[in-house]
Amino acid sequence: MNINGFLFSTSEAEIKKAGRKDIALIFSEVPATAAAVFTTSAVKAAPVLVSSEHIASGTAQALIVNSGNANACTGEPGMIVARETSRLVALGLGIDVEAVQVCSTGVIGVQMPMERIEKAIPALVDGLSSGTLDDVALAIMTTDTFPKMEARSGLAGGVSYTVAGIAKGAGMIMPNMATMLSFIITDAAVEPLFLQNSFRGAVDQSFNAITVDGNMSTNDTCLIMANGMSGNPVITEGSPEGNSFTTILNDVLLSLAKQIVRDGEGATKFVEIQVSGAKDEVDAKRAAMAIANSSLVKTAFFGQDANWGRIFAAVGYSGAEVDQSRLSLCFNDVCMARNGIFAGEDAEARGTEVLKQKEFTVSVDLGIGSGTATVYTSDLTHEYISINADYRS
Question: Are 22 and 66 in contact (CB under 8 A)?
Fold first, then answer.
């Protein structure tokens, strides 16, 4: 995958164990307009704190990321590692340290082996012309079973540009502002404020609308860099090119977010939760997330049990305004309950058949207002427990 002005490299730093590429570098040949969103958890990893400082300028030129160690809950030593990593990358590339974003993913509470990072950085810098974005996607995987990538092309002023992205994440997924890790790059020239607003809107409709296990990470980071190397006229808000760019950006992020859910740890189902008829969009999101995060609902999905009552129960405690006499629910096109009342045994049998599918939609109508929300989730399986019981071994 080639995006004008971006170079990539990966290396093996043996951060957690030998035998795989576990550190990567993305470099823009010119300073790029940039924006990022980070975890809103009060417990933030050192790289999140450092990158939050660096992105304040609204520009970035390099990103270094490792897997195998989150550098979270590591105190001042962790901050020193994150800052020194940024400094060494900046020195190697001949750029300002504030132009470097640093990200990590992996085990929490383990000190980062700085000597291994330091040894790997020269190889990353020297290898920039040989790597691909696909290589970076592979290097950042932890419990992921496949790399997550997406790319779309657009036109601005008759000039073609590309928006490409990668993501990693399978567990600790219920983002609030970002996802585990996702990096978006584009060779389009985009007006800075418009880029930031479009990006945040796309994140809200994608990464902030997924959940695997209801757990936010200490390292959640989503970053976009736009370097303008395609040579297009600057894309601005309200223009036809701006509307097209927003659509493309939304499509890329939503594809990546859905890939994360499909790769949810141990997941066998991909479920779209659609809530309509809520008092407002906030209430709709509350109800949808309550359904998507309910362990009882998710285990019913795994067991292919059309237990619609668990879904109504989740809506009831969600905090959304609810009148149970107006609630309706469908699995795909099978109505399970209408106006709060079970639709009967035939619906039960047909609903069970829907839940045997790998992908299906749960639609809930609150019957109160016009608020809507869509959330994507997975089932909860025995394999999820096995993966997380053995994560550190």
Answer: yes
